[in-house]
Amino acid sequence: MKNENYEALQNAWRTAYLIAGFIKKTLTIEEEEELDLWIEGSRENMRLFEELTEEKAMSDYIRWYDQQDVEAKLQETRMKLGLPARARVVSFWRWAAAAAILLLICGSLAYLFVFKKKESSMAVHEGKHDILPGKAYAQLKLSTGKVIILQSTTDTVVNGAISIKNGTVMNNASTDNTWNEIVIPRKAYYKVILPDGSKVWLNSESSIRYPSSFDSIRTVTVTGETFFEVAKDPNHPFIVSAGGINVQALGTKFNINAYANEAGTSTTLVEGSVKVSDVNHVKILKPAEQITDHDWTIKSIETAPVTGWFKNEFVFKATPMPVIARMMERWYDVHVAFKDSIPYHFNGTISRDLPISQLLAWLEETGNVKFEMNKNEITVLK
Amino acid sequence: MPRWPQRAQDDNDLLAALKKGDDKAFDQIFRIYYSSLKLFAFKLCANEQQAEDIVQECFLKLWRLRGNLANADNLKSYLYRSVKNVFLEKHEKRSSHPKELSHDIEDDSALQIVIRCETSREIYRVLQLIPPRMREVFVLYYLEGRSTREICELLHKTVNTIDSQRKRALQLFRKQFIPG
Description:
The complex is a heterodimer of chains A (382) and B (180).
Chain A: H1 6-24, H2 29-41, H3 43-53, H4 57-67, H5 70-80, H6 92-105, E1 110-113, E2 135-141, E3 147-151, E4 162-165, E5 168-171, E6 179-184, E7 188-193, E8 199-202, E9 206-211, E10 218-229, E11 238-242, E12 245-249, E13 253-258, E14 266-271, E15 274-277, E16 282-285, E17 289-292, E18 298-300, H7 304-307, E19 313-320, H8 321-332, E20 335-338, E21 344-351, H9 356-364, E22 370-374, E23 377-381
Parallel strand pairs in A: 1-21, 2-7, 5-7, 10-11, 20-23
Antiparallel strand pairs in A: 2-3, 2-6, 4-5, 6-9, 7-8, 8-10, 9-10, 10-13, 11-12, 12-15, 13-14, 14-17, 15-16, 17-18, 19-21, 22-23
Helix pairs in contact in A: 1-2, 2-3
Chain B: H1 8-19, H2 23-45, H3 48-64, H4 75-94, H5 108-127, H6 132-143, H7 148-155, H8 159-175
């Protein structure tokens, strides 16, 4: 470390301390004067001070810090250094919250961490019988009654308005007033570009119904789970109707989970703004907020676990085993039965593009759950 | 209540323990600085994955070279400088004109980034010590400048609840102040 550079950095630490103190309103009079002197020192200083103390600036940083999975990265780093894995240190309030829940349910609850791995070392389920992951597959139903089977390799022109390319249904604006429907079974996904350029990803056991050309209001109906990237067009509101709710958007990205076997239809906003409504409610979401129509309460959440599927990943964050089981059922077309209930929540990210054996073995690595597989029947055990 | 070390003195203790091969000290340092170093790296390279790789490499070096850190008298300065150096190495490997880039940490622009990272780290550190419910109110009111009425609507709480949570959060926020 060069000594001549030492001072510049020391000054930077001092400035950060003063600005943070200003935000915390904890500066002494002398310190305030010191800060004033620094601000007056240059235009850049003034600008930086204004930037950091501007409303919302700090909340953007906080959101950024919130998104960092420091513990996972620490464990990964320890692994690379050959240091033994260590149990997670939970911050006091998280610990207090966990303790409160513990008291409530009088059971044992723990957060388990499964770390991202390129390859999993598997023995348990390999060999005898495995189940492959879902793939690009869909049925396109035209208003004429014609049904076309789509796969990732199908590059065709269906008619003047619809063509299939790279596993995506492309719709050009057309003049006829008909409806098309895309249905995704279990073990499949597909992507569609609507006549207005909006993109929709469809998860397994899902569907979308949309007109061959949009009117002044762009309306589509969906079931199951869908992720939208709506093309900006302020003059033509975009409305998604899903399981009894309407989600209205201008140019935004959001996820709708309307599976019948989940607790209500939930809308998660990634970017922009949406209005979620039914006959009795109207709510407006900000990015990283989620609402479910069983309680209509807006929650701040991390979006990665919700939207992981459309990047072809399972992203778990304090995810209970029954939720994971339902994801497996849809993605691998299996039936999951619980012999024991699993009082643990799981964290981690793994590709969806793996046979089921790898997912199961990866979950078993936590030591807190076991699986038995018999053809398409999966049994969950302690 | 656990409290993250903040003063230079704590950093020195951690550094001394690290030199002796204490991996708990390594974990502590990682937890304290990882996010803000990644923010620094991210502002330098504008790529989140690269930023993660750079910071991880710095921590790998920190542990592997722990015996030779004798002249690293200031942990924080050492870490930020290490991020910059790894960034430059990686950048030079890729770029055919390494000289074009002069992200010296003592550049005014780099120092400004460092100030952003360290200011936000301190605010975030203090916020961690406020219970989540109060923290939400605190962020909405003080950092986002929303009105009590808006917050009531957002969180479905009464004005009284929001007001008392806001005041208690502010008290807690200020109590965490430790002279540097």
